[in-house]
Amino acid sequence: MPTYDYECDACQHAFEEFQSMMDKPLKKCPKCRKSKLRRLIGTGAAIIFKGSGFYQTDYRSESYKSAAKADEAKPAEAAKDAPKTDTTKSADTSATAGGGAANGSSKSSKSKP
Q: What is the pTM of this model?
C-alpha cells in the first residue's frame, strides 16, 4: 500500500497517509476539520528490496543451474585428488635451524670439572 502526501489549503497542515490504492482520497483535514484537504502528486517512493538480495542468477534456467553445480563440484574433487604436503616436517626443521637448545649446543654440552 502506498503512502500519500496531503496538504490542507485552509491551515497549511501537511502530512502523509498510508492507504490502499482503492481508497478514495481524504477530504477532511485532521487538524482543523475543514474540507479543504488535497492529495499532492509526488514522485513516489523507491522500491525497497528485503531479504538476502536479488541477483542475476536468481532467475536462471534449470540447465544453467545444473551446469553451475557441476562447475562447483570440479574444484572440490581436484582438492581431494591433490597430494598432501607434510607440514610437520617443515615446522621441525625451522625450530632446529636457529641453533638453540634443540640442536644440543646448550649449557648441557659443557662438561663439569
A: 0.38
The sign of the torsion formed by the CA atoms of 75, 77, 81, 85 equals positive
Residue 6 in contact with residue 39, Cβ under 8 Å? Answer: yes
DSSP letter string, the chain: --EEEEEETTT--EEEEE--TTSPPP-S-TTT--S-EEEPP---PPP---SS---GGGG--HHHHHHHHHHHHHHHHHHHHSPPP-HHHHHHHHHHTT-SGGGT-SGGGSPP-
Summarize pLDDT for 58-84 with one digit per residue, the tens: 666 778 778 888 888 777 666 666 666
Q: Which amino acid is at 51?
A: G
C-alpha cell at 97: 635451524
